[in-house]
Amino acid sequence: DLSSGINAEYGDVKEYFQSEIIVPLCTEIETDLRLSTHSHLQLDDRNPLKYGMKNISTLLETPPIRFFDSFIDIKKDVTHYLDSTFYNLTTVALHDWRSYAVMRNLAHQKYGLEMIEAHLPSQTIEQGIDVLEIMRNIHIFVSRFSYNLNNQLFVEQSSNNKHLNTINIRHIANSIRTHGTGIMNTTINFTFQYLRKKFFVFSQFLYDDHIYSRLVKDARFFKEHKEELDQCYPYDKADKFNRGIRKLGLTPDGLSFLDQFRILITHIGNAMGYIRMIRSGGIHACANAIRFVPDLDDIVNLEELAKEEELPQDTVQAAAILDSVLENLTKNFAEGTAYFKMLVDVFTTSMRSPKNQHLKNFYMIIPPLTLNYVEQMMNGKEKINKKNKLGAAFTDDGFSMGIAYILKLLDQYSAFDSLHWFQSVNSKFNNEEKAVKESRRGASDVKLDQTNTLTMKRLDEYRQEFELLYYSLSSARIFFRTDVEDIPVEVEQTPLGGNATPAASSNAGPA
Question: From 443's CA, which of 17, 298, 391, 424 has a CA 20 to 30 Å away?
Answer without folding.
Answer: 424
